[in-house]
Amino acid sequence: MTKVLIATVKPFAKAAVEQIKGIFDEAGYEFSFFEKYNNQDELIEAVQDADAMIIRSDKITPEVIAAAKNLKIVVRAGAGYDNVNLEAATAKGIVVMNTPGQNSNAVAELALGMMVYQMRNHFNGTPGSELKGKKLGIHAYGNVGKNVARIAKGFGMEVFAFDPFVPKETIEADGVTVFDTAEEMYANCDFVSLHIPANKQTIQSINFALLSKMKKGATLVNTARKEVIHEDELLKIFEENQDFCYISDIAPDNRALIEDKYADRCFFTPKKMGAQTAEANINAGIAAANQIIGYLNDGITTFKVN
Ligand code: 3PG
Questions:
Q1: Is residue 280 domain-shared with residue 260, that is, in the same domain?
Q2: Which of 44, 128, 176, 179 is the most core-located residue (most Cβ within 10 A)?
Q3: If we measure between CA atoms, which residue out of 228, 226, 289 comes closest to residue 253?
Q4: Ligand 1 mean position to 47 CA, how many Å?
Q5: Would the CB of 80 count as within 6 Å of ligand 1?
Q6: Mean pLDDT, the chain, integer
Q7: Are residues 192 and 232 in the same domain?
Q8: Is the CB of residue 83 less than 8 Å from the CB of residue 55?
Q9: Is there a single domain that holds both residue 45 and residue 122?
């Protein structure tokens, strides 16, 4: 019998778990939920006999791959797969997939929610300001960026985007104005919202050269990955641009220092929670389960990333 391990340090919502169980029951697969585990050693132990895995931000290291003797497919229930060592998986013929778009509305809603929270002075009772009429620059116009644009327009924001990988016409069709360079967008917007993946090209790419272009008092919003930020240079910006704000769903390594020095100008969620909604968990969880069955039963490789 095919064995699926659903390894999630951060468990799926109950409703998602029920639906995933239903899908595997119907397919006649054996499955187990391995949630809230404490370390990589426990994961290495748990994967030994798995044919397939569903994960979230769980780290699939070469050691995990080596331990998983029967593994044929890993599906990252979510968008970013920077937590999976693709080289090690590919070398063993293991297919890696993601579930693009399934949790993007949840992430987009959080981005706007954090913006409101910041503009209303962390709900401290003092007069803040509104999003209406402000300029929002979306850095990378994928599934999340597109949802951010839709919601921001509801707030009455002026929406811009920079994405060299998406045709200008596609973005413009959403009523979003395209900047040809990131620099121009950073220089012109009141908010910049990051939706780039973390990869060799983007790690530490949000640096002083770019952030120093931002307007006085502008806000950087990060619901993507902390690794894309050049943290030392971010600190320099906090010092130089006196009203610069940074709000993020993925706290920086130097969180304590930033919170201590610039309490009013930053906000970090206690735990990454962009995709932490029942809806996102259900969408991504169901997609992941169906993709595993589709691959193992019928060889379907849509959403394969390696
Ligand atoms: C993603 O890449 O899909 C998001 O960052 C969600 O990550 P999570 O599943 O760990 O919440």
A1: no
A2: 176
A3: 226
A4: 21
A5: yes
A6: 98
A7: yes
A8: yes
A9: no
Cα(215)–Cα(279) distance, rounded to whole angstroms?
36
Q: How high is the pLDDT of residue 249?
A: 98
- Judgement on whether residues 43 and 141 belong to the same structural domain of the protein: no
102 Cα nearest atom in ligand 1: 3
pLDDT tens track for 202-236 = 999 999 999 999 999 999 999 999 999 999 999 99
Shared-domain flag, residues 175 and 264 = yes
Say yes or no: CB of residue 272 within 6 Å of ligand 1. yes
Task: Please tell me the distance from the alpha carbon of residue 192 to that of residue 172, in angstroms, as a whole number.
Answer: 18
Residue nearest to atom 10 of ligand 1 (CA): 57
Query: Containing domain of residue 218, as a range?
Result: 104-268
What is the domain-level CATH number for residue 185? Answer: 3.40.50.720
240 in a structural domain: yes
pLDDT digits (tens, 9 = 90+) for 50-71: 999 999 999 999 999 999 999 9
Q: What integer is the mean pLDDT of 78-90?
A: 98
Ligand 1 contact via 275 beta carbon (within 6 Å): yes
* Count of domains for the chain: 2
Query: Could you tell me if the CB of 285 is within 6 A of ligand 1?
Result: no
- Residue 35: predicted pLDDT: 98
Arithmetic mean of pLDDT, 82-99: 98
**pLDDT tens per residue across span 233-280:** 999 999 999 999 999 999 999 999 999 999 999 999 999 999 999 999
User: Which ligand 1 atom sits nearest the alpha carbon of residue 225?
Assistant: 5
Are 141 and 111 contained in the same domain? yes
CA 128–ligand 1 middle distance (angstroms): 30
Kindly report the pTM of this predicted structure: 0.97
**Pair 23, 289: CB distance under 8 Å:** yes
Looking at the domain assignment, is residue 241 inside a domain?
Answer: yes
> How large a percentage of the chain has pLDDT more than 90?
100
- Residue 130 CA to residue 286 CA, distance in Å, equals 37
Length of the chain measured in residues: 306
Ligand 1 close to Cβ of residue 100 (< 6 A): no
Rounded-to-integer distance, Cα 203 and Cα 297, Å: 37
- Report the C-alpha gap between 77 and 282 in whole angstroms: 10
Do the domain assignments include residue 152? yes
Binding site membership of 134 for ligand 1 (Cβ less than 6 Å):
no
Ligand 1 geometric centre to CA of 239 (Å): 31
Q: Is residue 306 part of a domain?
A: no
